[in-house]
Amino acid sequence: MTELLTAAQMQAIEQAAIASGEVTGLELMERAGQGVVEAIFEEWPELAQPVESGRGASPSRSPEYLGKDDAPRRAVVLCGPGNNGGDGFVVARLLKERGWAVEVFLYGEPEKLPPDAKVNYERWRESDAVRPLCEEVIDAGEDADLAVDAVFGTGLTRPFLDHGEVQSELNLWQAASRRGAAPRVVAVDMPSGACADSGLYLGYAGENPFDSAVMANFTVSFHRAKLGQFLSDGAVACGKVVVKDIGLVDRDSPAVPGEVVTLAAPSAGGKAFGHKYSHGHALLLSGGHGRTGAARLAARGALRIGAGLVTVGSPRSAMMENAYQLTAIMLRQIDGPNELDQLLEDRRINAVCLGPGLGLGAETQMLVMSVLKQERGTVLDADALTQFEQNPGVLFEALHGNCVITPHGGEFARLFPDLDEKLNAPATTGPAYSKVDATREAAKRAGCVVLFKGPDTVIAAPNGCCSVNSAHYQRSAPWLATAGSGDVLAGFIIGLMARGLSPMQAAETAAYLHVECALNFGPGLIAEDLPEQIPTVLRRLDIP
Ligand SMILES: NC(=O)C1=CN([C@@H]2O[C@H](COP(=O)(O)OP(=O)(O)OC[C@H]3O[C@@H](n4cnc5c(N)ncnc54)[C@H](OP(=O)(O)O)[C@@H]3O)[C@@H](O)[C@H]2O)[C@@H](O)CC1
Ligand SMILES: Nc1ncnc2c1ncn2[C@@H]1O[C@H](COP(=O)(O)OP(=O)(O)O)[C@@H](O)[C@H]1O
Ligand SMILES: [K+]
Question: Which positions in this protein are listed as binding K(+) (predicted)?
Fold first, then answer.
């Protein structure tokens, strides 16, 4: 797991280090600039070589040495009015020391720079010019190898929209540079304009935020990754995130309201001992005739992930349809809440999932209420959530600590319309309300674990524990957005809860493995393929 920080958390860590006398702000800025330069050459080692006449790197030359026919590498550095800009001046100086030709542009007034950034501005000005940020950047960048975006980092408080043409040019460069046709774009801490807490571009309403926003080929962050690099548009805009150590240490701070982590591979959850009943018995309720696939997908997920026994409970109308297609999974006829209550007298059925394909109507509501009063491990998804659109309070009252609800964006909006409105209102001030904030509030209100789906799946418990399961960067798996994949996820969660994992552990482990299954299969995936990847994924992760 990797801890993700908000801007306030990062500032608290920095302030505590400076206050303790261990380090000065200026030293931290120097290390940050060094970290960026180091990361650039690690990412693109060819940039460490000078350009021979006619351009094109010469692989065997010392980077410090320029022959008479060599042209220097070129960079444009865009600095902003805060310490992010200060980092930019350090980067400009360090590149110049390596023989680069560097042009620096400043957004803001030099007299207003904060003290450490001012020192680095003055150092640069001793020998070189700083031009105000303007469209000249576009000409200057035409011939450059690198563009450094150091306009705003964690301190963005307002929209940054008044240089749309420059921003969209950087965006075009990052796309074209993948074909070697333009300067590569590296962002310092955050692509400018995107909020470091929420990943939202401030001030963009309803349009594509990337039309005129800075997008980077990669982003260099300091000490720890920031939440906004893994949420919403930020996770797309960063390109890739490299975290550089600048000698800070974590410390508890009253300003830090509970950590958020990105999920890593689970290390536990093995099925080492016991007979099938010691691995639990999961029950999944099927919809009626013609609506049974979703429950079977979930059931297959539950069985593959290791529940000892899995039963599909089906209404009479769908018994034949289910019976034709189930083998290792058992089938029981359940018509209505009374029969469900009777079946649940078997205490060995320790986990129940309902919602996928269940349909909407009074009976769904009664089934949900019937299961919830049993206080057994419960996963509610899809129709079991939508059913409560008109009266979410009734659901929240019945939910208990042994439940997980798994809304996608639409279902989240139905249950938590006010939180959805806050999340989707155009963000105009930073730090903006984030998917982490919304999911945490939702979990508190619902009184159970909420798994809010998406490429940035956020999982929160009522006590504030929170994690992000990111399907971005090296875990990007857009083909997971396929019909029925959410049903399989619900099945993974209920299977793990049947095996005794806590709701939070089950939701986190299932979400992680779900993306691993998609990565293992690759493009062309359909939901049926997901449970079949579990054996390979578990073997690879060394989970028995
Ligand atoms: N923390 C650490 O440990 C370390 C941090 N480091 C670096 O510092 C960065 C954070 O620096 P920072 O706090 O100065 O914030 P930054 O992003 O430069 O901007 C703030 C300034 O911009 C202004 N402003 C905001 N929005 C605006 C807008 N739209 N248009 C115009 N102005 C706007 C805002 O004005 P205000 O809101 O106060 O009026 C303020 O003046 C961080 O990302 C990292 O790169 C490293 O050096 C090493 C260790
Ligand atoms: N772009 C994406 N990259 C990775 N995973 C995604 C992406 N979009 C959606 N997902 C995941 O796909 C699943 C879709 O679930 P859901 O919306 O409930 O679909 P369905 O109802 O068809 O099963 C969720 O687990 C979600 O996190
Ligand atoms: K930046």
Answer: 84, 149, 192
